Amino acid sequence: MDSFCNSISNKSQVMKTIWLLVLVLGVVSLGGVECRKAKKKIPETFEYTAISCRAHSASITDYGGVGDGKTSNTKAFRDAISHLSQYEADGGAQLFVPPGQWLTGSFNLTSHFTLYLHKDAVLLASQEISEWAVIAPLPSYGHGRDTAGGRYISLIFGTNLTDVVVTGENGTIDGQGALWWQQFHKKKLKYTRPYLIEILHSDNIQISNLTFLNSPSWNVHPVYSSNILIQGITILAPVTSPNTDGINPDSCTNTKIEDTYIVSGDDCIAVKSGWDEYGISYGMPTKQLIIRRLTCISPYSAAIALGSEMSGGIEDVRAEDVTAINTESGVRIKTGVGRGGYVKDIYVKGMSLHTMKWVFWMTGNYGSHADTHYDPNALPVIQGINYRDIVADNVSMAARLEGISGDPFTGICISNATIGLAKKAKKVPWTCTNIAGVTSGVVPKPCGSLADQGPEKVGMCAFPTENLAIDYVEIKKCSYRTG
């Protein structure tokens, strides 16, 4: 048809004028052949903020990607990222995912790289288990979480990377987890379920402005990494889905999680650092963690959990402006004999809690061991736990605080906390065993092992005022232009 239209342009000027008039009207038909005025694709510019901007850009369609929700794009993503990795030392590269449903298996990220999802782009995780490679357990776990041995690689995976951004205009990553949940409940899994995104042994990572749906298991899992920024993400899964934790910083340093909305079947944020003897041996704590402006719904778990895998240690966690609705507990510490490690210097302020089972929950009898080789003499140290400025309503029980016999949890501080009990609340609002600490301005009256310091000490529980290094990370304005 193009050659026919071109031949017309070689006629006399009169014919050119006639054809021009017809084309202005929109369409011409001659002998069954149509010539339409070509529509120019109007370029679009997408602006976003990131820790780094890139010198090179491409679209997944440049590598054969098809966003019809049926065609596998696993090869397209792998080819695209492999090709774009050549620009690591030349300003980096960004891969644009346009509107559409992009079915894909697992793919690996590269350094100095941005994956950007349009607001109408959906990454659909493949339902073909053969597209999910099996990798070894994490060394600080030594064991799969669902089964002994290996685990399926995450949908988006990376290791030994630097300067990586996964972002968008609230584009969607859908794990299509129902298949995996069914296999888990039927005990038919050969290996541990995959996560939606996992980044290991890496530095300078940003995950922002995305929606994560229906993960097979955990959603976002940075591990053995540092300088991590997680902002503006939404995580959604059925509240009965198994182990669909929202964000799990694991043996990480200098991490900030801000402005997140999570509905899940497990802890909204679960802070971890390895499991039993494997975590003790690996010895890599999670520290310098900021959590701000979290909204959580999880009827069977916590808004923020510390543990249960905390054998490498957890310290200097700062959480503020947390809203939890219909969530089992506000902040929960989970540990037990054989865990070893420590949870210390934890600071929480500004919690608004609605319809809770417990506001405060500390558990020293949490089981779930990796194997039978854990050391029964490896006792955890829990100390320096600070809670202040908390309002809760429709609560079944204010607190359940259970340390370990011979290994009490100490240095607990709770101040300015008003807890409104539900109509059918427990008769005894506090239970405390093997714990020690102080309180001020707490209603209802706490147990005796949390000594009341009087109303004048209502601001006594510590919360650091100095910033951490992650607060000083420079954020740049970046753009991607189509066409």
From TrEMBL:
It comes from the Eukaryota. PANTHER family: PECTIN LYASE-LIKE SUPERFAMILY PROTEIN, PECTIN LYASE-RELATED. Gene3D superfamilies: Single-stranded right-handed beta-helix, Pectin lyase-like (2.160.20.10). GO terms for molecular function: polygalacturonase activity. InterPro entries: GH28_Enzymes (IPR051801), Glyco_hydro_28 (IPR000743), Pectin_lyas_fold (IPR012334), Pectin_lyase_fold/virulence (IPR011050). GO terms for biological process: carbohydrate metabolic process. Belongs to the glycosyl hydrolase 28 family. This is Polygalacturonase. Residues 1-35 form the signal peptide. SUPFAM superfamilies: Pectin lyase-like (SSF51126). Keywords: Glycosidase, Hydrolase, Signal. It holds the Pfam family Glyco_hydro_28.
